[in-house]
Specification:
- It is a single chain.
- The chain is of the alpha/beta class and 701 residues long.
- The strands form six sheets. Strands 9-8-11-10-12-13-14 form a seven-stranded mixed sheet, sandwiched between helices. Strands 20, 25, 26, 27, 28, 29 and 30 form a seven-stranded antiparallel sheet that branches. Strands 2-1-5-6-7 form a five-stranded parallel sheet, with helices on both faces.
- A hairpin with a 4-residue loop joins β8 and β9.
Length: 701
C-alpha cells in the first residue's frame, strides 16, 4: 500500500549536505550507515559528493529512476523540489522540512499547495515537518535521528518527531528492536489511517504503537483501527484531550462529555489499547510484543517478599482481574518442595532466601496450573538473592502458552537481570502495579478479540412520527424540543412514557390531572427554560385538584418573577411515575466520532460523582451491558445490602433504542432521559423526563 515510502528501491535526498550536524548531511549519513542497499542519490548543486556518494546538481541529472524522495530544503524551495522528484519518477516523498501550517496561514497555504501537487500526480506525501522514516528490516534510516534500533517487531507511528527520538532512545536502553518508526508530522497526505491499514498487513510488525495529537477523520479512524486491531495489538497514547471538544452543553450528557471521553469511546469500540501515560505506552508494547495473549484473567503471583506480593494482589483485584485459586493437589506438590515457611497460596511466597531453582519450581507450578491464565514473578534484591541467575532460571519458561511477566524491583542490583530478561523476551517492570497494568491491557485486548459478532438490533418504531415533529421544529426554527414533543419522540421509539397533556389554565390542569389520575407532576413548557427545576418549573406528587390549581398559579407567578422574558407555552400535567431506581440515559454528538451514548445512575452519582460511561452508537446489547458494568454503581443496580435490584435488561434495551433513534436522526445533537425509572425484573421502565436538542433540520432518508 505504501511500498515506495517504506520499502523503496532507490532514494534521492534533495538538500544533501557535506556538513555534519546539518539535517541534509545526517539523513544521507544515516542511510549509508544503516546499510541501505539501493541506489542513493544526494542532490546539491554546490557539492560533488556527500558521504562518499556522487552528488547531483539536480535530481533530473541522475540517469536512473527515483522511487522515494526526501526533501530537506527551506520551505520556499519545497514545491519545486517535489515537482522535480515527481518528474524523476518518485512515487513517495518525505518532506522533513518544517515551516508549514504549524507556523501560520502562509505556511498552511504552502502545505496545501504541496499536498495538491502530490495528490494530483498520484504521489504519496509524508509530512511535512517530520523526523523521517525508519524501516530496520529494509535497512533504511531515512531520518535525522541519532539512534538506529536493531530489527524487531514493534512498529511506531508518531505525530511528534521528538517523541520518535525518545522512543528510539528508550528502545536502545532496553535492548529492544523495532520494525518501523514513522514520523507523520503535519499529515498533509499520509496519516495514521493509511499507516494502520498498512501496518496491519505488515508481516514484520507484531505490535503497532502510536502517539497521536489529532485524528484526521473519526469514522475512517475507527474502521482502520478496528481492521488493524483485529489482526494485532494497537497501542496508542493520545495527547491533547483536555480542552479540545469542550463546549457549553444544555444536557447532562453534553456537559460530562469531552474530547478525552470521545477518544476513549472510539478506542474502546475499535479495539485500540489506550495508554494513559507515555510510560504505559512502552509497558504495554513490550508485553504484547514478547508474550502470548492470556485466555482469561486469573493471575498467579510468585514473590520472594510478602509486601510486594500483597501490592500485586491488590492491583490485580482492583483492575478487575482475579487472583487465581490454585489447584489444591498442585499446591500440595509444590509445598513438599519448598521450605516449611514458604506459602503456596496465591501469592506464592518463596521467601527472601529463595535461590533461582526455588523460583523455577514455583513458576513452573503456576504455569502448569489449569486455574491460572497468567503469571507475574516479583523479585526484590536481598542478601541471598541472585537476580541475574534467577532471571535465567525463569527464562526457561519463556515462549509458553501463557503470559509470563517479571517485576524485578530495585536499581543497580537488578540491572544485570533486566538484560537477561530482555534477551529472553520476558517483559520486566519496576513495580507490581506496572506489571499488573500491562497484563490487564492484554486481558482486555484478548477479550475484545474474542468478542461475539456485533449484531445491531433494529426495533420496530414509528419514524414518520419523529420526522413530522422535526419538520414542525424546522418550520418554527426551534432547536430545543419541548417536553411534550420530546415525549412523543420517545413514544415513537417504544419508550414507556407517563400519560400527560399541556394545560393553558389552572382549570385545564385539573381536568388533565383527573383524566390521567392522581398523583401528578406539573412542569413548565418553555423554549427559554432548559433547566426547569432551577426556575421552580417542576412540582411533584400533587394529589388533589386544589393542590394542582395552587401549584399551577404559584409556578407561573414564580417563573414570571425569575425569568420575565421567558416564553411560556403552557404547563405540562403528567401522571406521576411510581418510585423506582433512577438512572440517566443520554447522547451527545461528537464532531469527530458521532453519537456518544451515556449511562449513569441518577442523583448524586451523576451530579457529583460523575459515575457515567460512554459508548459510540450504534450499539449492541452486549455493548450496552458493558456500559452498565463499567460504572462503580453497577452493584446497586443488581441489588446490594438490602437494595432491591433493577431490571438491567430494560436499561440495556433503553440504551439500544436511543442508539437507534440518534442513528436514524443525525439532527439530534443532544438528549437526556433523566430520570429513566427502572423497576424490578419484569416491570416496564418509564421515561419520566426528557430533553432533546436539535442541530439541523435535514431529515435522513
Amino acid at each position: 500500500m505504501l511500498e515506495s515510502l517504506l520499502t523503496p528501491r532507490s532514494i534521492a535526498v534533495i538538500g544533501a549536505s557535506r556538513t555534519p550536524g546539518k539535517v541534509g548531511h545526517d539523513v544521507v549519513a544515516n542511510l549509508v550507515q544503516g546499510g541501505f542497499a539501493g541506489p542513493l542519490v544526494p542532490v546539491n548543486p554546490s557539492a560533488d559528493e556527500v558521504c562518499g556518494f556522487k552528488c547531483y546538481p539536480k535530481v533530473s541529472d541522475y540517469p536512473g529512476e527515483i522511487d522515494l524522495g526526501v526533501i530537506v530544503v527551506p520551505p520556499k524551495h519545497v514545491l519545486a523540489a517535489a515537482e522535480n522528484l515527481i518528474d524523476a519518477g518518485a512515487k513517495a516523498i518525505i518532506t522533513i522540512t518544517a515551516g508549514f501550517k504549524e507556523v501560520g496561514p502562509e505556511g498552511a497555504k504552502l502545505e496545501a499547495e504541496l499536498a495538491a501537487l502530490c495528490r494530483g500526480r498520484g504521489v504519496r506525501l509524508m509530512g511535512p515537518n517530520v523526523l523521517g522514516v525508519i524501516n530496520t528490516h529494509h535497512k533504511m534510516n531515512a531520518s535525522f535521528a541519532h539512534h538506529l534500533p536493531k530489527p524487531g517487531d514493534i512498529s511506531v507511528l508518531s505525530q511528534s518527531g521528538a517523541i520518535c527520538t525518545a522512543i528510539l532512545d528508550w528502545a536502545a536502553g532496553r535492548h529492544l528492536g523495532l520494525a518501523k518508526l514513522i514520523s507523520i508530522g503535519n499529515k498533509a497526505d499520509v496519516s495514521e489511517i493509511d499507516l494502520l491499514y498498512t501496518l496491519a498487513e505488515d508481516p514484520e510488525t507484531r505490535v503497532i504503537v502510536g502517539y497521536l495529537e489529532s485524528i484526521v477523520s473519526g469514522d475512517a479512524f475507527i474502521r482502520a483501527a478496528e481492521e488493524a486491531a483485529s489482526r494485532k495489538p494497537v497501542v496508542i497514547f493520545k495527547a491533547g484531550t483536555t480542552s479540545a471538544g469542550v463546549k457549553a452543553a444544555s444536557s447532562h450528557t453534553g456537559s460530562l462529555a469531552g474530547a478525552n471521553v470521545a477518544y476513549g469511546a472510539a478506542f474502546k469500540r475499535s479495539g485500540v489499547v489506550r495508554a494513559d501515560t507515555f510510560e504505559a505506552l512502552f509497558d504495554y508494547a513490550t508485553a504484547f510484543a514478547m508474550q502470548p495473549l492470556p485466555k482469561g484473567n486469573r493471575v498467579a503471583i510468585v514473590t520472594n517478599a510478602g509486601g510486594p506480593g500483597i501490592i500485586a494482589a491488590d492491583a490485580v483485584e482492583n483492575s478487575g482481574m482475579s487472583v487465581a485459586q490454585l489447584d489444591s493437589a498442585r499446591a500440595q506438590a509444590l509445598r513438599s518442595k519448598l521450605p516449611a515457611a514458604a506459602s503456596v497460596g496465591n501469592p506464592i511466597d518463596v521467601l527472601g532466601d529463595a535461590d533461582p531453582e526455588r523460583y523455577a519450581l514455583a513458576v513452573q507450578a503456576a504455569l502448569e496450573d489449569d486455574r491460572v491464565d497468567a503469571v507475574i514473578v516479583i523479585l526484590t534484591p536481598q542478601a541471598m538473592t541472585k537476580p541475574a541467575e534467577t532471571a535465567r532460571a525463569i527464562a526457561r519458561f519463556a515462549g509458553g502458552q501463557k503470559p509470563l511477566l517479571a517485576c524485578f524491583m530495585g536499581g543497580s542490583d537488578v540491572m544485570p537481570a533486566r538484560a537477561e530478561l530482555v534477551l529472553s523476551r520476558l517483559p520486566d517492570y519496576t513495580s507490581p502495579e506496572r506489571a499488573v497494568s500491562a497484563l490487564k491491557a492484554m486481558v482486555d485486548y484478548a477479550a475484545w478479540r474474542n468478542r461475539p459478532p456485533r449484531i445491531i438490533t433494529r426495533f420496530p418504531v414509528n419514524r414518520r412520527r419523529v420526522e413530522r415533529i422535526i419538520l414542525r421544529q424546522s418550520k418554527l426554527d426551534l432547536k430545543q424540543v419541548l417536553e411534550p414533543q420530546a415525549k412523543d419522540i420517545l413514544r415513537a421509539y417504544d419508550f414507556t412514557v407517563p400519560d400527560g397533556r399541556i394545560a393553558y389554565q389552572a382549570s385545564e390542569a385539573v381536568d388533565v390531572a383527573e383524566m390521567v389520575g392522581y398523583p401528578v407532576v406539573i412542569k413548565v413548557v418553555s423554549p427559554d427554560i432548559i433547566h426547569k427545576s432551577d426556575m421552580g418549573g417542576v412540582k411533584l406528587n400533587l394529589g388533589t385538584a386544589s393542590a394542582v390549581r395552587d401549584a399551577y398559579d404559584l409556578m407561573l407567578l414564580r417563573i414570571k418573577r425569575l425569568a420575565p422574558q421567558a416564553r411560556i407555552e403552557g404547563i405540562y400535567v403528567e401522571k406521576m411515575a411510581m418510585p423506582a431506581q433512577e438512572v440517566i440515559l443520554g447522547m451527545t454528538r461528537d464532531p469527530q466520532f458521532g453519537p456518544m451514548l451515556m449511562f449513569g445512575l441518577g442523583g448524586i452519582f451523576v451530579e457529583v460523582m460523575k459515575d457515567v460511561t460512554f459508548y459510540l452508537a450504534p450499539i449492541t446489547f452486549d455493548d450496552a451491558m458493558q456500559m452498565l458494568e463499567g460504572t462503580k454503581s453497577y452493584a446497586l443496580l443488581k441489588g446490594a445490602r438490602g437494595h432491591a435490584g433493577a431490571d438491567i435488561t430494560e436499561i440495556a434495551r433503553g440504551i439500544q433504542r436511543i442508539s437507534q433513534l440518534v442513528t436514524d436522526f443525525p439532527q439530534i445533537a443532544e438528549m437526556d432521559i433523566n430520570p429513566f425509572m427502572v423497576g424490578p425484573v419484569g416491570a416496564k421502565a418509564v421515561a419520566a423526563d426528557a430533553r432533546i436538542t436539535l442541530s439541523s433540520f435535514e431529515v435522513k432518508k
